Structures are given as structure tokens and as C-alpha cells.
Amino acid sequence: MISFSVDLWYAAIGAALIALSLLAFLLSKRLLKKLLAFNIMGSGVFLVMVGMAQTQNNGAADAVPQALVLTGIVVAVSATALALVVIRRFALASVVAALAAENKGAERTGSDTAVSDTTVSDTAVTDTDLTDPNLKNGDPQ
Questions:
Q1: How far is the CA of 111 from the CAs of 98, 104, 114, 116, in angstroms?
Q2: Deepest of 26, 31, 44, 119, by most Cβ within 10 A of its Cβ?
């Protein structure tokens, strides 16, 4: 029977995290879920790196994998922040495009609800619109 050391357990759990998050990343359609799966995959890689780090003769862990993991964590946090900004801007652009298409569709049908002098820039959703307490679910009360 194979005896697992603590380091080998870290590597095995890291490999399981990588496999499960890769599956979630490939099967998910939402960008935020993909980002979360990608971050969990990165955590699995960090666990594998820590688990597979060779120990020196005196029992102290090797400093190089530890430094790489710490650097990777900093890079992962920065990349996550950048990805969140990109996802947020993509969502705002999607809302603007949907509003523009809705206005164009309403103008073509001659509907009374269409605002003919409204441009896309007038209907653009801003950051304050998302945090305005007077708006409930994006609609004025």
C-alpha cells in the first residue's frame, strides 16, 4: 500500500482541484464562473508546486518553489482584478448594445414608446447608474 506524505497529499488535492476547475471552466457559459474556475485552477497549481517541492537534508523546505508560489499569488490577484474590470465593461457594453437595438427596433415598428431623438450615448449605462439607490433592478421606481 502506498503511504502518502503530507507533501504528496498537497499535490494530489492540487491535481484534483486543477481537474475539477478545468471541467468547470470548459462547461461554464458565464464569464464570472469561468474566472472563478480559472482562479481555483491557479490555486490547484500552487498546491501542486508546494506539494512537489523538494525538501533539503535538514528538513527545511526549498525556498524557490515557495517564492514562485508567492509571486504567482500576487500575479493571480492582479490578473483577477484586471479580468473583473474587463468583464464589467463587457457587461456594460452589452447593456448599451441591447438598448440601442431595442430603440432601433421600436423606431422601425413606429411604436409610440420609441424615443426618436435618443442616441446610444444618451442611453449608456454609467457606473453611477449601477450604484444609484433610487434604481431598483436598473429601473427607476
A1: 17, 11, 6, 10
A2: 44
